[in-house]
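Response to reviewer comment R2.3. The reviewers asked that we include at least one raw input/output pair. We reproduce the pair for Glycosyltransferase family 1 protein here without editing.
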Amino acid sequence: MQLPTRTSDLRVALFSGNYNMVTDGANKALNRLVGYLLAQGAQVRVYSPTVENPAFPPTGDLVSVPSFAIPGRAEYRIATGLPASVRRDLAEFAPNIVHVSSPDPTAHRAVTWAREQGLPALASVHTRFDTYPRYYNMAWVEPLLTAILRRFYRRCDALVAPSESFAQVLRDQRMNYDISLWSRGVDRHIFDASRRDMAWRRSLGIADDEVVVGLFSRLVMEKGLDVFSDTIDELNGKGVKHRVLIVGDGPAREWFEARLPNAVFAGYQAGTDLGRAVASMDVLFFPSVTETFGNVTLEAMACSLPVVCAEATGSESLVDNGVSGRLIPPGRIHAFAEAVRAYVESPELRAAHGAAGEARSRDFSWDRINQSVADTYLRLIRQKVAGRK
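Raw output as returned:
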């Protein structure tokens, strides 16, 4: 293998479990990475399950891999392996590094293929997969799932994680000994306080003097929708005047609408429409503990919103507690309610913490962040070549 020295020398085989089937933070980050690499002259080939009507067009060349729909969550699919046709495509593409982004059977086979070819394999870790079972009454599965993930990630040459707090979790779990950061950026053309639109709020029945407690996310239970709902109940019980605005869609939407009948559900929003919706909130309340970075949190901060989040991986690396928002121990309904209440009742506190969050959000440049991944690719290739000598 010829030693690449520049980003333009890279040939990346990227394996994704969901490259563009639905819209979430992980696949948006992957598409943005591919776009950046292609702009720098690198070659990239993406291997992922595909569907007839994806959420958005893929960035770069996409090769479909065999998959099946997840029972009960048909919008997601599990990639099932690496058939001969895909192996031939890989051989013809001749990558100098393999990047896997979901611990599915295809990714397992891709790592094996990379090791057989003497190529480095990098895994990007996008979500707390080990925490998901607790939201479906299967917490007993977590230790087994953690062990399976450890076996997979230890077979990779290195991992990249979206936040330092999550990287430390992975170190503590002994997932790998080479873990670096691939943070996330924010699109400031979309997420900016100037997109606040009072006329749009009025069209939803929200008065100008009402304080909006907002959530924008894919509506699935692992985002802490139960904690959000219980907290709103406590605010209502204490007579705290506010309006709830929910932006997003997903399989738990019907449950969420029934649970919060007085909330405004604006549905799925994208691009500048999403920026308008977020900037038109007054406080972000996001109690999820499954985030590894917290794109939602960063985007709200860029819109000058104070944020109330669970004290968990991702948010701990973004929010300065008591300065740009509040970090509350997971599941502490009363503490969440008091933190949200403070913002609802104090416009001065909202303004001060919103301004601090906006300033912090400026540290996240997509080009700088994605170049760090390219630099990690180059380092791993150098190490692999040096190990053969």
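The radius of gyration is 21 Å. The mean pLDDT is 92. Further pairs are available on request from the corresponding author.
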